[in-house]
């Protein structure tokens, strides 16, 4: 039996790496990958809770998170294609049209 | 089994950490594929085969392939700016916020995990006997049937939206490079 | 526990990775290394290579990959139903039909928009 707190620790570390990537990286696609990583860290937490509490609710939520991740990837990458078509770049520092 | 968990978890964290430091988006994507695969192994260690299969099939197999497609599509080069060691204020803020979120998550999880106990009816033995796939199937078609139908609407909207966004409008002049 | 059943898979993975690493290492250690400019060129049927290895792909590939991803997710949801097909009978069939019809609406939209056409 793996202690639940250790699974949650793994989830927290992965989530923090995702947050760090969103903060530090400048390439929009890499930032987007970090968002996927954060969603996956949440999945780990859900399955960890389901494992520790002997419940199946967490596992069901994994599927809903999965669909959200897939839909997000499809639409987000399409947005990036559209942005790239007009700006010829995916550097987040250059998307400054709405900046104050 | 505990040792296997630690090894796989360490490998997963290491390959996730690669995203922060690798310059080329393709390498980042491949390292993330590795991370997702290792998380699939962790899901097997947590008695959930179906989630593990889904993880490898969807995350590592389909979503990351889509990412790689877009990287190839946009012809993204590795970041060629010199690696700067001096930290801008944004980077310091980012790292600080990351550490803060990590501390908060560990705090919340640490306080809640202590109070947890087995309170559901699906013990590890029962999951092993019935199979996680069968249990998921039963729940999905009975208790969670409404969210399940709503999923299809989400998927439909996303496929429509992506096509609207990505499809090339009939161009007034030829500007896209031909393959 | 489920994990014990997967030990053979792990062994297979280890063997595959081990062989790959072993022969790559052997190649690096044992092979003679005499690099010339010609040898370092990417092989293009004996012709001098032109252009860079990176090439912009057409957005049509994205359209196909997109449809693939969506229907891959859909298959994941069909799978549990297929396992419990007999137990749920007509009820399961109706539930899955609604699910499927809504998804096919999206596919039909793509089709009418011409996203599935190659040219």
Whole-angstrom Rg of chain C: 25 Å
Provide the β-strand percentage band of chain B. under 5%
User: What string, H for helix and E for strand, traces the elements of chain B in order?
Assistant: HHHHHHH
Q: First CA to last CA of chain C: what distance?
A: 52 Å
Q: State the CATH topology of the domain at 1-76 in chain B.
A: Four Helix Bundle (Hemerythrin (Met), subunit A)
Tell me the quaternary state. heterotrimer
Q: CATH H level of the domain at 1-76 in chain B: which superfamily?
A: NADH-ubiquinone/plastoquinone oxidoreductase chain 6, subunit NuoJ
Number of strands of chain B: 0
Task: Sketch the major β-sheet of chain C.
Answer: none
CATH top level label of chain C: Mainly Alpha
Short description:
The complex is a heterotrimer of chains A (100), B (179) and C (119). Chain A is mostly helical.
Structure description:
- The complex is a heterotrimer of chains A (100), B (179) and C (119).
- Chain A is mainly alpha-helical and 100 residues long.
- Chain A has helices spanning 4-24, 28-53, 57-87.
- In chain B, helix 1 (2-21) packs antiparallel against helix 2 (25-45) and helix 2 (25-45) packs antiparallel against helix 3 (49-74).
- Chain B is globular.
- The mean pLDDT of chain B is 83.
- Chain C is an all-alpha fold and 119 residues long.
- Helix content of chain C is 69%, strand content 0%.
- Chain C is built from 4 helices and no strands.
- The termini of chain C are far apart.
- At the B-C interface, helix 3, helix 5, helix 6 and helix 7 of B face helix 3 and helix 4 of C.
Question: Any chance you could write out the topology, listing elements then pairs?
Answer:
The complex is a heterotrimer of chains A (100), B (179) and C (119).
Chain A: H1 4-24, H2 28-53, H3 57-87
Helix pairs in contact in A: 1-2, 2-3
Chain B: H1 2-21, H2 25-45, H3 49-74, H4 89-115, H5 124-130, H6 132-141, H7 145-166
Helix pairs in contact in B: 1-2, 2-3
Chain C: H1 7-30, H2 37-40, H3 59-83, H4 85-113
């Amino acid at each position: 039996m793996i202690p639940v707190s250790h699974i949650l620790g793994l989830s927290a570390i992965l989530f923090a790496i995702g947050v760090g990537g969103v903060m530090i990286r400048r390439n929009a696609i890499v930032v987007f990958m970090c968002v996927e990583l954060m969603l996956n860290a949440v999945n780990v937490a859900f399955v960890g809770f389901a494992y520790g509490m002997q419940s199946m609710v967490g596992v069901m939520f994994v599927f809903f998170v999965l669909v959200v991740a897939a839909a997000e990837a499809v639409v987000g990458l399409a947005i990036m294609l559209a942005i790239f078509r007009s700006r010829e770049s995916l550097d987040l520092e250059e998307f400054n049209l709405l900046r104050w | 089994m505990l040792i296997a968990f630690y090894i796989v978890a360490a490998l997963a964290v290491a390959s996730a950490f690669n995203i922060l430091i690798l310059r080329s988006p393709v390498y980042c994507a491949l390292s993330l594929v590795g991370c997702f695969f290792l998380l699939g192994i962790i899901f097997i260690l947590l008695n959930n085969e179906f989630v593990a299969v889904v993880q490898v099939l969807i995350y590592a197999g389909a979503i990351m392939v889509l990412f790689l497609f877009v990287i190839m599509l946009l012809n993204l080069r590795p970041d060629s700016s010199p690696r700067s060691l001096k930290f801008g204020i944004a980077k310091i803020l980012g790292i600080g916020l990351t550490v803060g979120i990590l501390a908060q998550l560990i705090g919340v999880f640490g306080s809640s995990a202590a109070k947890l106990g087995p309170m559901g009816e699906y013990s590890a033995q029962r999951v092993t006997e019935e199979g996680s796939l069968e249990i998921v199937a039963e729940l999905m078609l009975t208790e969670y049937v409404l969210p399940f139908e709503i999923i299809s609407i989400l998927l439909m909207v996303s496929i429509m939206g992506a096509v609207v966004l990505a499809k090339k409008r009939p161009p007034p002049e030829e500007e896209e490079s031909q393959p | 526990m489920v994990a014990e059943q997967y030990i053979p898979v792990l062994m297979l993975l280890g063997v595959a990775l081990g062989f790959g690493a072993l022969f790559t290492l052997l190649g690096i250690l044992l092979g003679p290394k005499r690099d010339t400019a010609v040898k370092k060129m990417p092989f293009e049927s004996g012709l001098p290579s032109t252009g860079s290895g990176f090439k912009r792909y057409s957005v049509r590939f994205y359209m196909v990959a997109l449809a693939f991803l969506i229907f891959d997710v859909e298959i994941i949801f069909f799978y549990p139903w297929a396992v419990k097909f007999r137990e749920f009978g007509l009820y399961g069939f109706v539930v899955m039909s609604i699910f499927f019809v809504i998804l096919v609406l999206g596919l039909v939209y793509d089709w009418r928009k011409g996203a599935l056409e190659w040219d």
